[in-house]
Amino acid sequence: MKNMIDIFIVEDNKILSQTLKADIETTFAQKDVRIHLFESGGECIERFSKEKPPIVILDYHLDSKKAGAMDGIKVLDKLKKENSDVDVIMLTSEDNIAIAIKSFHHGASDYIVKSETQYKKINNSLFHLIKMREAKREAKRYKRLAVSFFLCISLIVVSIVVMQVFAPFLLR
Amino acid sequence: MMENEIRADGTICDLNYLSEMLGARKPLIKGIMDTFLEQIPVELSSMNEAIATTDYQSVKRYAHSMKSSVSILGITLLSPVLSEMESLGLAGTNMERIKELNVTLHWVCKEAMAELEAVKGDYI
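YS: structure for the whole thing
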């Protein structure tokens, strides 16, 4: 589907990711949003190049169940390397400014601390990111229209000049 | 001990939060309950294993993960229990206290699971 928005959620707590999925689907019921859930960074990266989602919600601590699992920053680096245009919302349980700065430094678009208000914050962030993407898409469309219009006018002017030079009788 | 801290209506889980969030979409709430019923026994078993092997780091990790899980189902009386387990795991100390808290954790989870099993039929 042309305007389908694919969103990847990478979170190793299935209860949390499923709740988040249900909440986003309810909030954005008017939009064509398709959510994909992943429990590890590896699974997400594997599908990322195929699906090319514009938005990824990524848990900073992906090792809460499996020690030594790839952490959120490593996954973020790999996603950004694959597609620098992807918007990544980092989720973390720690309200730690150092982690926030590190996430932004590595290219995250937003940083949200897990709390009672996390779902509202995530939806706000998604709303803004989707709006920005729509605005960019509209700007590109207007740019294409403007270029097409300019080319048409140029073509008409050139045609008139050519006729004026080689077949002036046609214009009389 | 914990019997004094259960909710006024006698329940442990507070599903109002989920209901407010997801509105009338009952199957979604049931799906989350099913995931909880499936995931919590695994997390409890992992916690037991971490305690049996005196693995403080894992105690911290599992307590941290469970905090998010129980808060979604509104099991607020487990928040201080899991926070203390997480802190002790981080500090790497007082395994005896962690064991005491683990007993409470198991008791509350068992009650919560029985409660969810009883009500999940209403969410089809």
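YS: worth flagging: Chain B touches chain A at residues 18, 21-23, 25, 28-29, 31-32, 35-36, 38-39, 46, 57-58, 61-62, 64-65, 67-69, 71-73 (CB under 8 Å).
IM: good catch. Also The first helix of chain B runs from residue 16 to 22.
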